[in-house]
C-alpha cells in the first residue's frame, strides 16, 4: 500500500466510503482521524473495525485509536482499552500494543 495523506471533514462522505471496498474503508479510517474534530464520532467508527477480517482495515482502525488519543488527548479510555484487549489476531499484536501505549500516554484517567 502506497502512502497517501487522506483527510475527510465530511461525515457523510466518510460513511459512504465505509460502505465501499476495503481500500475505501482504509482511506475513510485514516482520513476521518485526520479531518474530523468530533473525536467521539471517530472513536465509535474506529471501534467498529478493529476486529475486521481484513488485516489492513483492522490495523488502520487500531492505529487510528492511538492517533485520536495523540491528536485530541481524549477517548473513552476504559471502553477503547477493553475493546483492544479482546483482539486475538497475533498479526495485530504490535499495532495493538502501540495504540495502547499512545492511549496511556496521551489520555489522562
What do you see in this structure?
The chain is built from 6 helices and no strands. The protein has 109 residues and is an all-alpha fold. The protein has one domain.
Q: What would you report as the Rg, rounded to the nearest angstrom?
A: 13 Å
Average pLDDT, to the nearest integer? 94
Morphology call: globular
Q: Please provide the count of β strands.
A: 0
Give the SSE string.
Answer: HHHHHH
Poorly predicted regions are none
Task: Supply the number of structural domains.
Answer: 1
> What about the largest sheet?
none
Give the end-to-end Cα distance, rounded to a whole number of Å.
Answer: 35 Å
Q: Based on the structure, what is the oligomeric state of the protein chains?
A: single chain
Q: What is the helix fraction of residues, given as a range?
A: 55-70%
What is the count of helical runs? 6
SS strand fraction: under 5%
The class by helix and strand makeup works out as mainly alpha
Jot down its keywords.
mainly alpha; 6 helices; single chain; 66% helix; 109 residues
In a few lines, what is going on in this structure?
It is built from six helices and no strands.
List strands and helices in order, with pairings.
Blueprint: H1 11-18, H2 22-35, H3 39-47, H4 55-72, H5 77-85, H6 93-106
Helix pairs in contact: 1-2, 2-4, 3-4, 4-6, 5-6
Amino acid at each position: 500500500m502506497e502512502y497517501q495523506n487522506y483527510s475527510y471533514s465530511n461525515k457523510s462522505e466518510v460513511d459512504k466510503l465505509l460502505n465501499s471496498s476495503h481500500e475505501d474503508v482504509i482511506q475513510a479510517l485514516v482520513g476521518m482521524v485526520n479531518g474530523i474534530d468530533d473525536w467521539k464520532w471517530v472513536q465509535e467508527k474506529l471501534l467498529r473495525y478493529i476486529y475486521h477480517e481484513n488485516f489492513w482495515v483492522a490495523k488502520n482502525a487500531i492505529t487510528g485509536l492511538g492517533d485520536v488519543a495523540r491528536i485530541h488527548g481524549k477517548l473513552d479510555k476504559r471502553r477503547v482499552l477493553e475493546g483492544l484487549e479482546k483482539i486475538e489476531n497475533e498479526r495485530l499484536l504490535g499495532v495493538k500494543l502501540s495504540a495502547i501505549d499512545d492511549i496511556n500516554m496521551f489520555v489522562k484517567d
